[in-house]
Design goal:
This protein is of the alpha/beta class and 384 residues long. Helices cover 37% and strands 19% of the residues. It has 16 helices and 13 strands. The strands form three sheets. Strands 3-4-5-6-9-10 form a six-stranded mixed β-sheet, with helices on both faces. It is elongated.
Amino acid sequence: MPTVLIAPDKFKGSLTAAQVAEAVGDGLRRARPDVHVESVPVADGGDGTVAAALAAGFEHVPLVASGPTGEPVRTGYARRDDLAVVEMADVAGLVRLPGNKPAPLTASSRGVGEVVAAAVAAGCRRIVLGVGGSASTDGGAGFLAGLGARLLDASGSPVADGGAALTSISTIDLGPARDLMEGVELVLASDVDNPLIGPKGAAAIYGPQKGAGPEEVRQLEAALTHFAEVVAATTGADHRDDAGAGAAGGTGFAALVLGAEFRPGVELVLELVGFDARVSKADLVVTGEGALDEQTLHGKAPAGVAAAAGAAGVPVVAVCGRNQLTVEALRQAGITDVYALTDIEPDVARCLAEPAPLLTRIGELIAADHLSGEAGPTHIEDGG
C-alpha cells in the first residue's frame, strides 16, 4: 500500500491548504483505492499558519482584538499546552481592512500585541508569531503598544496608531511590554528576511503592496527611520538591519527589540505539524501553492517542504494554479514534477472559480504517473 503525504499551502483567494489537500487526496484515492493518504496543511508564517496548527491538533482560542484600522475583529490563536501560535494576518492583515480599502499610513499592528498579551495572560510561555500578510507599515509600534508599551510625543501624550505617526514619537517606555514578556519565549516566523529600512526595507519593498504610492513610501521610510533611532537611543541596541526586521511592515523589528528569535516561517510550521515524523513513512510527497514563481524559491512553503522531504529521501511533486519556474529551478528546489491547473484547463477564470475538481483530476494523474511502479511522463515545462 503506497503512502502519500499531501503538504500544500493555500491557493490564495481560491482554496485553503486543507481544501487543496482534500481535492488532491480524492483524486489519488479514485485512481488508487489502496493508497494511504495523509494530509498536513502547511504555511510559511503568513495567512494559514493558525489553520495549519489547528489541523495538526492545536486548540483554537477565540478572542476579539483591534483590527488594522482600530475596529474590533473576531480572531484568535492556536494553543497546545503552553505554546501559542499567533497569526498577524488574521487580526491585522490585509484581509481585515474594512471594505478592502488600503490604509498604508494609518494601519496598525496593535491587535497583534493584544492577541499575544491575551495568550501570555492565559498561561502561554512560548509564542510563535507568524507575521505575513500584514496591512500595516508601523515598525511594530502598534504591536508594542498592544503589549503595554507607551509611545509618547514631545508633550507626553500617546501617539496615534499607524506608520505616519511614528515621526511624532519622542520617548518610548518599553517597561510594561518587557515585564509582560518576562520569561516568555517569542519566535518570529517569517518568509522574508528584509531589514527595516533602506532599498530592501519594509516601506520600499512592501509598502506598495499595502497601497502606498511613491510619496507615501518616502513618508513611511522617514517615519521608520525616526522610530528606529528613538528605539536605539532608548534601548542601546540597534536592530534596524537585523534579518527579519522589515517583516510585516516592521513588526519583525519590534519583536526583535523584545528579544525574539527569527526563524524561517515554513521551517517552524513544519516543526509544529510534525512533518519529519510523517514524511519518514511516505513514498511520495505532494506540495504546492497557487503560483510557483521566483518567490517560491525564497522561503515559501513548497520549497521548504521539498527540502525537508528531500532530506528524508522522499520524492516530491507539486500542484499549482500556474507554474512560472524553469525545469532547472524546480529540480534544484527538489521538485521532480509539477501539475498546474492551467495544464488541463486553459481558461484561467475557471481555474480560479472551480479549482477543486481540477485538483481532483490532477490527483488521478499523480497516481497514474507516480504510484504505478513505472516512471511516468514528466509535467515540468519551463514556466512563463
